[in-house]
Design goal:
By secondary structure, the chain is mainly beta. The chain contains 1 helix and 12 strands, in the order ββββαββββββββ. The protein has a domain at 15-43 and 78-146: Beta-clip-like (Beta Complex). It has one helix at residues 49-57, and strands at residues 15-19, 25-29, 38-42, 46-48, 63-65, 70-73, 85-86, 92-97, 100-105, 114-117, 128-129, 140-141.
Length: 150
Amino acid sequence: MRRSPPPKRTNNEWVFAAPSGIHGSGLFARAEIPAGTLLVEYDGPRVSAAEGRQRAAEGNAFVFGLNRREFIDGSVGWNLGRFANHSCEPNAASESRGGRIWLRALRVIFPKEEITYDYGFSFRDDPTPCRCGAPNCRGNIVAARHRDRS
């Protein structure tokens, strides 16, 4: 017997997905969210690091490195976290907890405010252009360890 995939998730207690001014769909606060709140898990099938890198190279923008051995393919419908966009001035951060990735509020987030985090891509030589619109936007989505290098 074949199982149906879990349904597409577009909301939870804290957040909901909706069209974004940054890019495509975004994740937005349902209510005022206290600093430190775990907002949403970044979820999906676990794949090897080699498979994760291959999927990313093939254009899967939802692959997230969990550790040196394992990646999460967040392109699945039940992964509400995939809607969170990048910002150079984020209000949330990704955090590894017990083999899972969560987005945590860095400060109070107000109702209908878009939830963003710093993707911190490691593609220094082929950076992804940033569209966050933050006053101090760096212009590219690049990990902190690769920023401001000559």
